[in-house]
Design a protein that fits this description.
Layout: E1 11-20, E2 23-33, E3 37-42, H1 49-56, E4 64-69, E5 72-73, H2 79-84, E6 87-90, H3 102-106, H4 121-135, H5 150-163, E7 168-172, H6 180-195, E8 199-203, H7 207-213, E9 216-221, E10 224-230, H8 236-244, E11 262-271, E12 275-283, E13 287-292, H9 298-306, E14 313-318, E15 321-322, H10 328-334, E16 336-339, H11 343-347, H12 354-358, H13 374-387, H14 404-416, E17 422-426, H15 434-449, E18 453-457, H16 461-467, E19 470-475, E20 478-484, H17 490-497, H18 499-504
Parallel strand pairs: 3-8, 3-9, 6-7, 7-8, 13-18, 13-19, 16-17, 17-18
Antiparallel strand pairs: 1-2, 1-4, 4-5, 9-10, 11-12, 11-14, 14-15, 19-20
Helix pairs in contact: 4-5, 13-14
Length: about 500
């Protein structure tokens, strides 16, 4: 069972530092996680949160500072050591074995055995059912992990942690890919773990969730500890100011841009069972927001327009010329760029350098006599990295080591390097901090002012309303409204987003 309240924090870090070569990832990280509490850890991307978590998890060893568990100094040399001492990290995207059952994933490497040292599956299933009952969730212990939702995968990781009697659970951006109902379920589980006397650390960029769930908030900035505040004694504005070291004036720095001729024209686009009879246009200098509920078909429409997915009927034209369907190369040649929703899996080569990633789409034009040098990649990537405020000293860094916000900047830079006429950007600020969000929004506004046409898909309604000149609302694969900026209100958008649903009731 979890440790009882003793007055000593279950986990404490004091002025912990970690560098990777000349790059200081964490200068003085500090946090106290107490039994029976949920403690938020917030900060901009690059503030040091991930490095701090990896030190606690045994992925990295600290260079200096103190790491205390129940008041005892510890130094984890591996993730196995950290887990053995009761530390569990629940990541945004768990990595389960898809072809094993839920129960087998929970008990991997420590299956109970019976007579003849045979695995006692009945005991495993019974214990798994007991774990899920404690958590108040219903998942079939015998089903394969393949096909499980992200939310269910996270619950399985939590069940595994409880089965190992983890006393400290760190949840790293656990809600980024969850629906509202799934978030509610996760929060109910988190509160039950807190009430059992466990210490939880919750990392999120979503302030509404932080203030709903957490008891205290610790702020990191530029690798250093800034402050710890009781949630009841602070507010979002104060936390944001501590995070960025300045007042964030306008999160949506949208400026009016002259609107020109239609750049993208979509007519009668249909894909059986996905979307139907979709028609719209995006003009030069215009940001068009694609809004709607999760599963409405927004991303699928964008992927079809760019040629990642095929479609059954309709046409896509760019600057008056029809673009062949199902052919991303043709779309790029025509002048389209596409920043996908999942930057790590679809937008980056995470094991390659920043320069290699930024130069990725234009690489064929950089080679000489069939040879491509790192110098050529860096020279091509430098200006775009500079414009997006990715440090040029980071051009040789592995993209996997960068913060989420900087990774997003790298993906955007890669596509802007193609000098596109149309930029399609799906969830431009998902999982990045408030300061970087403002930077991305400012960049989109500048690009529109330069005459670029922009199609922006976002699940964050304030982002759509704050940045779009027009809002196209998608409901069950159909565009149900085209709302100009002056008339785009939360009520109008949500009414259109549930239009077909309401008609069926």
């Amino acid at each position: 069972m979890a440790t009882a309240h003793t007055g000593v924090p279950t986990l404490e870090l004091r002025d912990v530092a970690k560098s990777f070569g000349a790059v200081v990832a964490l200068e003085s990280g500090s946090i106290r996680a107490e039994a029976g509490s949920i403690h938020a850890l917030v900060g901009e991307n690059g503030a040091g949160k991930s490095t701090l978590v990896k030190i606690v998890a045994g992925v990295h060893r600290r260079d200096s500072g103190e790491l205390l568990l129940d008041g005892e100094s510890v130094d984890f040399g591996s993730t196995a050591e950290s887990k053995a001492r009761g530390i569990a990290v629940i990541y945004q995207e768990p990595t389960l074995f898809p072809d094993l059952s839920v129960t087998e994933n929970i008990f991997m490497g420590r299956q109970p055995t019976g007579a003849g040292r045979r695995i006692d599956r009945s005991a495993m299933y019974a214990e798994t059912e007991g774990l899920f009952e404690r958590l108040g969730v219903h998942i079939d212990p015998r089903r394969l992990a393949r096909g499980l939702s992200i939310a269910d995968q996270q619950i399985i990781e939590i069940a595994k942690a409880i089965s190992l009697d983890a006393r400290v659970l760190i949840m790293d951006e656990p809600t980024a890919a969850l629906s509202g109902v799934e978030v509610d379920r996760l929060f109910a589980v988190a509160r039950s773990l807190r009430d059992e006397g466990r210490a939880l650390i919750f990392i999120s960029h979503r302030f509404d969730e932080v203030f709903e769930l957490c008891d205290t908030i610790t702020v990191l900035r530029d690798g250093s500890y800034i402050d710890t505040l009781k949630t009841a004694d602070t507010n979002v504005d104060e936390i944001v100011a501590l995070m960025v070291g300045r007042e964030v004036g306008d999160l949506f720095p949208k400026t009016p841009a002259p609107v020109g001729q239609a750049v993208l024209q979509v007519e009668g686009l249909s894909s059986r069972g996905v979307f139907h009879d979709v028609s719209f246009e995006v003009r030069a200098g215009e940001i068009v927001g694609l809004a709607g509920l999760v599963g409405a078909g927004r991303s699928e429409i964008a992927r079809a327009v760019f040629g990642v997915d095929g479609y059954d009927s309709g046409t896509v034209s760019l600057a008056g010329r029809v673009v062949p369907g199902g052919n991303p190369r043709a779309a790029i040649k025509a002048g389209m760029a596409f920043v996908p929703e999942d930057r790590r899996k679809q937008g980056l080569v995470t094991e390659a350098s920043v320069a290699h990633n930024v130069a990725g789409v234009i690489r064929s034009g950089l080679s000489k006599a069939g040879l491509l040098t790192q110098k050529a990649e860096s020279q091509a990537a430098g200006p775009w990295a500079g414009r997006l405020e990715v440090k040029t000293s980071a051009l040789d860094m592995n993209a996997a080591t960068m913060s989420g916000g900087n990774q997003q900047k790298v993906v955007i830079a890669k596509w802007l390097a193609t000098n596109p006429k149309l930029l399609i950007i799906d969830e431009p600020t998902r999982g990045i901090d408030v300061g970087t969000k403002a930077e991305v929004h400012r960049l989109l506004s500048e690009l529109a002012n330069d005459g670029m046409a922009i199609l922006m898909i976002s699940s964050e309604l304030p982002e759509v309303l704050g940045m779009a000149d027009r809002v196209l609302v998608v409901c069950e694969g159909r565009i149900t409204a085209d709302i100009p900026r002056a008339e785009a209100t939360p009520e109008n958008v949500m009414r259109a987003a549930t239009d077909t649903l309401e008609a069926q009731r």
